[in-house]
């Protein structure tokens, strides 16, 4: 009896494997061609945090930050971030190096701190690049901000007592009324808001270690009331300083009584 020749299926398996390899290669080339020129987009997939648009700062040392996003069309995560600061003429005043964050998910906060040369108005922009070196465009809406480190001028402090008892009697007591001539302001962004005044009043305590009144006040006269009543033998002290809209303080102006 003759042995039957059995056909081996090896050629079929090899052909299937070859077909799969060719198909995967074609898809890879196609996807690569589709991604050519696509960028990690900043303008649509990020949020600036600070400084906010039209912020008024009282320091030249500025911290910039934003939340990086992802180009959803390519699932292309930014890898590095770049900051640039401009003057009002569009000239770059300062810029960062590429800050590598190795972004692995949406919502990475990127920060950069720099010191700017002077008070004035500036703007800032950001861009990113992916791990392949593809650059995004700069964001299309730069945020403007201002720096104002100049304090307001010193107000003139005036304090006097209001008699609240019978003159010369044991019940005689005095209440404090503090008023001041407002100081002038500079022309920086802090002057755009009304001045506030910090007022402190102290009795027999020229160091203000435990003031009987301490508050911020918008008007040019302040009466702390019964919390700062004085007897005829007490010494009273008051001081006031101005604060502008950027948070700059003037020096203290002091007054006391008896004069």
Structure, described:
With 259 residues, the chain is mainly beta. The protein has two domains: 47-147, Immunoglobulin-like, CATH 2.60.40; 156-257, Sandwich (Immunoglobulin-like). Helix content is 10%, strand content 37%. It has one helix and 16 strands. It has one helix at residues 10-35, and strands at residues 47-50, 55-57, 61-67, 78-86, 92-95, 99-100, 109-115, 120-130, 143-147, 156-163, 174-181, 196-203, 213-217, 221-222, 236-243, 253-257. Strands 2, 4, 5, 6, 8 and 9 form a six-stranded mixed sheet that branches. Strands 13-12-15-16 form a four-stranded antiparallel sheet, with no helix packed on it. Strand 4 (78-86) and strand 5 (92-95) form a beta hairpin. The longest helix has 26 residues, at 10-35. The protein is elongated and about 115 Å long. The protein starts with 9 loop residues before the first helix and ends with a strand. Residues 24-45 have low confidence and may be disordered.
């Amino acid at each position: 009896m003759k042995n039957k020749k059995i056909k081996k299926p090896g050629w079929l398996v090899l052909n299937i494997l070859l077909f799969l390899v060719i198909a995967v290669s074609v898809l890879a080339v196609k996807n690569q061609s589709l991604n050519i020129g696509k960028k990690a987009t900043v303008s649509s997939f990020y949020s600036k945090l600070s400084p906010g648009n039209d912020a008024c700062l009282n320091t030249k040392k500025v911290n910039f930050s934003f939340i990086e996003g992802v180009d959803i069309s390519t699932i292309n995560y930014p890898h590095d971030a770049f900051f640039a600061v401009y003057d009002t003429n569009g000239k770059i005043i300062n810029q960062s190096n590429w800050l590598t964050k190795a972004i692995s998910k949406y919502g990475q906060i990127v920060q950069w701190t720099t010191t700017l040369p002077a008070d004035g108005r500036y703007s800032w922009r950001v861009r990113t690049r992916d791990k392949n070196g593809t650059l995004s465009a700069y964001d299309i809406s730069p945020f403007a901000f201002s720096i104002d480190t100049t304090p307001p001028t010193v107000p003139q402090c005036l304090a006097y007592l209001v008699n609240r008892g019978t003159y010369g009697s044991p019940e005689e007591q005095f209440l404090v009324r503090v008023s001041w001539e407002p100081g002038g302001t500079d022309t920086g962004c802090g002057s755009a808001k009304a001045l506030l005044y910090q007022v402190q009043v102290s009795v027999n305590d020229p160091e203000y270690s435990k003031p009987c009144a301490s508050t911020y006040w918008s008007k040019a006269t302040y009466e702390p009331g019964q919390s700062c009543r004085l007897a005829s033998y007490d010494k009273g002290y008051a001081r006031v300083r101005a604060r502008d809209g950027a948070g700059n303080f003037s020096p203290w102006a002091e007054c006391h009584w008896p004069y």
